[in-house]
Write a structure and sequence with these properties.
Helix content is 33%, strand content 29%. The chain is of the alpha/beta class. Helix 3 packs across helix 4. The longest helix has 15 residues. It is globular. The two termini are 35 Å apart.
C-alpha cells in the first residue's frame, strides 16, 4: 500500500488546500529566521522535505547555497523550474543517506516529519540530516507542540476553495495525530479520501533522537 504522504502530497487537491502557504508567507518567515540565525554569507544549506521549494527559493535569494530534497517527484519537478547556480533540487527520501559533512544548516519546515510507521525510520531520517552537517552545523526543525495540539484540536472543519469542497476530521490517540480529508470536486466521479498521520514527538523525543546522533 502506498504511503499516505506519497499519495496526498502528489495530489493537486493537496496543493489547492494549502495554497495560502505561498511564497510571500515563506519569504517573510525565512527573512525573520535568517535575521535571528545570522548565518555566514554564502554558506551551504539543506531544505529537507522542501516541497515545491518556497523556502529554498528565499534562502537562495538571500545569497546562500541551497539544496532542497523531497520524496514527491511532482513537487521536485515544479521546484526545478527555479534552479540556479546556488539552488538545486533532488527527489530523495530523507531516511536514506545523502551528502556527508557538507552543510552548515539543515531545515525541516511545516511539520514535515513524523510521517513514518516506526521510530527506527525517524531515527534514520535524523541520522541522515545530522550526517549531512559539518561538525559545527545546525539543524532547525519546525514541528507541532504536542500538548498544545492535544488541547486545541478542532474535530471537524469544512473548507471551500473554488469548486472544491473539503470535509476535514481530526482526532488523536496516544501516539499520533490524524486528519482525514474528504475531497468533493466536480471533476471526481466519487469523493477522494486522504488521512494524514503525524507522530506525537515531544521536545524530549527530539532531544533523545538528536543526542543519539551527537547533536
Amino acid at each position: 500500500e502506498k504511503a499516505w504522504y506519497k499519495a496526498w502530497f502528489n495530489s493537486p487537491f493537496y496543493h489547492k488546500l494549502y495554497f495560502e502557504r505561498d511564497d510571500k508567507e515563506a519569504a517573510a518567515f525565512i527573512k525573520q529566521l535568517i535575521a535571528h540565525l545570522q548565518p555566514t554569507p554564502g554558506c551551504r544549506m539543506l531544505d529537507v522535505a522542501c516541497g515545491k521549494g518556497r523556502h529554498s527559493k528565499t534562502l537562495a535569494s538571500l545569497g546562500f547555497d541551497v539544496t532542497g530534497i523531497d520524496i514527491s517527484p511532482e513537487s521536485i519537478e515544479a521546484a526545478k523550474k527555479f534552479e540556479s547556480t546556488h539552488l538545486s533540487f533532488f527527489v530523495h527520501d530523507m531516511r536514506l543517506p545523502f551528502y556527508s559533512n557538507y552543510f552548515s544548516f539543515a531545515f525541516n519546515f511545516f511539520t514535515s516529519f513524523g510521517y513514518f510507521n516506526t521510530r527506527r525510520e525517524h531515527d534514520d531520517a535524523i541520522r541522515t540530516i545530522c550526517k549531512s552537517l559539518q561538525p559545527s552545523g545546525k539543524f532547525i526543525i519546525d514541528y507541532l507542540n504536542v500538548h498544545f495540539a492535544e488541547d486545541h484540536l478542532e474535530p471537524t472543519a469544512f473548507k471551500q476553495i473554488g469548486d472544491t469542497y473539503y470535509d476535514i476530521h481530526r482526532w488523536h490517540d496516544t501516539t499520533h495525530f490524524y486528519k482525514k480529508i474528504i475531497v468533493h470536486d466536480p471533476s471526481l466521479e466519487a469523493p477522494l479520501s486522504f488521512v494524514e498521520k503525524v507522530a506525537k514527538f515531544t521536545l524530549g523525543d527530539f532531544t533523545d533522537m538528536l543526542s543519539y546522533q551527537g547533536m
